[in-house]
Specification:
Blueprint lengths: L2 H10 L1 E2 L1 H11 L6 E4 L7 E2 L3 E2 L9 E2 L3 E4 L1 H4 L8 E9 L13 E5 L11 E4 L27 E5 L9 E2 L10 E3 L7 H9 L4 E5 L3 E7 L3 E2 L10 E2 L2 H12 L2 E8 L3 H11 L5 E5 L9 H6 L11 E7 L1 E2 L3 E7 L4 E6 L3 H20 L8 E6 L5 E2 L5 E8 L4 E4 L8 H5 L3 E5 L5 E2 L4 E6 L2
Parallel strand pairs: 1-19, 7-8, 14-17, 14-18, 15-16, 18-22, 20-25, 23-26
Antiparallel strand pairs: 2-13, 3-13, 4-12, 5-11, 6-8, 6-9, 7-10, 19-21, 21-22, 23-29, 24-28, 25-26, 25-27, 27-29
Helix pairs in contact: 2-8, 5-8
Length: 441
């Protein structure tokens, strides 16, 4: 069967949600790994396990500002009978030439500074007189204001156990430990760890570039005045934000008029910066469904292996869908319906998993759970279709419908944090019934 004939056959049958998603994920492949600087790798997925080349921290260091001392020298110390020690100098963070602390001696030490040879523990400065000869102090004077603070005598008012207030070498990560596993999404804390163990670059799969465009001559940019029969374009904003939320670098293209030639030209212009393209609108059976008109025959002869197939799915909302590849590099393209709720639900079910697959993630789906339906009346659903209703999930394990089932209800969508799933073989769901819930937040 020819490519065009197979597409025609595909348009005639009704596809399940699972079949359509399976075809998408079988076609989309993870992006090739690249080496990136740490900050450029934020949001990317780690390709290889990362082992710590050395210990972290790399040396014993103080967790407090205070005095490095020997345990025996402060044993039994109290405010009435303080231990009086000779201060031999300062140990600051980053200092290389360390003092030696002998019997009856103390070194003034700063947080993060290496524990000097001979010292066995750290006494916080608040447990001392700070070398001032009076009662306990609340802190040290700056070295620039009190150069003499590194010499003289200090009175210690409390004893300290061995290695108190000392961060041991390797207490965070030991040399050779697995620091991060392959498949980890690099956020701020993971980048901090990579930097701490000395990694300047890391091998990752890049964040996919997703181009989003809406179609329709009736669409007007937000902020512009509406004319007769016009509406503001919300889909391209919603899906661009959703793509970024999924981990992509997303680009929004202004609404394209209902002109097949203009749409084809716009798509061709955008291919250079796309790993995935998403269109909304123009995929149904109307006379002005420009996406179907523009893309139904793409790839038949000139671009083998590419082309867009348009399907009817057994779902509500979101029955009309399109998917395929376009251009010489076979960039995946998902064509979604134009009603706002249909578009957003379709994104969650099909586009988000595709983005997460491009990223190289193992788990590409939103989390699901079971919840008890809290509603004033039974929910109805068309036979043979899997329905996705907007809902609000509560901590008590219930989920409540938000708004109606209309695919234009943007306000209801804005107040939903879950999708209530009604299976194809269920036409009515009574309050108190346990239902499947897809968590969106």
């Amino acid at each position: 069967m020819s490519t065009a004939a197979s597409r025609t056959a595909g348009q005639d049958r009704i596809w399940s949600v699972d079949e359509h998603l399976q075809d998408i994920l079988a076609t989309v492949r993870p992006l090739e790994p690249i080496e990136l600087q740490l900050l450029d790798a934020q949001g990317c997925v780690l390709v290889d396990d990362v082992l710590a080349p050395g210990s972290l921290p790399p040396f014993d260091n103080s967790s407090m500002d205070g005095y490095a001392v020997r345990v025996a020298d402060v044993a039994g110390a109290s405010e009435e009978f303080p231990a009086v020690l000779d201060v031999v100098g300062d140990v600051a963070a980053g200092q290389r030439d360390l003092l030696h602390v002998g019997p009856g001696q103390a070194a003034r030490i700063m947080t993060g500074a290496p524990l000097p040879p001979g010292a066995e523990t750290v006494v916080p400065v608040e447990w001392t007189d700070g070398g001032l000869g009076e009662g306990p102090v609340s802190g040290m004077r700056a070295a620039g204001l009190d150069p003499g603070g590194a010499r003289g005598l200090v009175r210690v008012h409390r004893p300290a156990e061995a290695r108190a207030h000392v961060r041991a070498k390797g207490s965070d990560v030991r040399a050779g430990d697995l620091a991060l596993e392959a498949g980890t999404v690099l956020g701020p804390s993971q980048i901090a760890l990579l930097a701490a163990i000395g990694r300047g670059t890391v091998r990752v799969r890049p964040r996919p570039r997703v181009v989003v465009m809406s179609t329709g001559s009736e669409l007007v940019q937000p902020g512009e005045q509406l004319g007769s029969g016009q509406i503001h374009d919300s889909n391209s904003f919603a899906l661009t934000a959703a793509a970024r939320d999924a981990g992509a670098i997303a680009y929004r293209v202004g609404a394209v008029a209902d002109d097949a030639d203009i749409l084809r030209s716009t798509i061709e212009d955008q291919l250079v910066r796309a790993d995935l393209m998403v269109t909304t609108g123009g995929v149904s059976v109307g006379a002005y469904d420009v996406v179907k008109e523009a893309l139904s025959h793409v790839g038949d002869e000139d671009e083998p292996g590419s082309g867009i197939e348009f399907r009817k799915l057994a779902m509500q909302p979101g029955k009309p869908q399109g998917f395929g590849a376009i251009g010489a590099d076979h960039i995946p393209l998902l064509a979604l319906p134009g009603n706002p709720v249909s578009s957003y639900v379709s994104f969650e079910l099909f586009v988000r998993p595709a983005i997460r697959t491009l990223m190289g993630l193992a788990d590409v789906h939103r989390p699901t759970m079971r919840a008890t339906l809290a509603a004033d009346k039974a929910l109805t659903s068309p036979a043979g279709r899997r329905q996705f209703l907007r809902g609000s999930h509560c901590d008590d394990g219930t989920v409540r419908p938000v708004g109606g089932s209309g695919s234009h209800l943007v306000a209801a969508l804005a107040h939903a944090d879950a999708l209530i799933v009604v299976p194809e073989d269920v036409t009515s769901v009574e309050p108190g019934t346990e239902v499947e819930v897809v968590l969106l937040g």
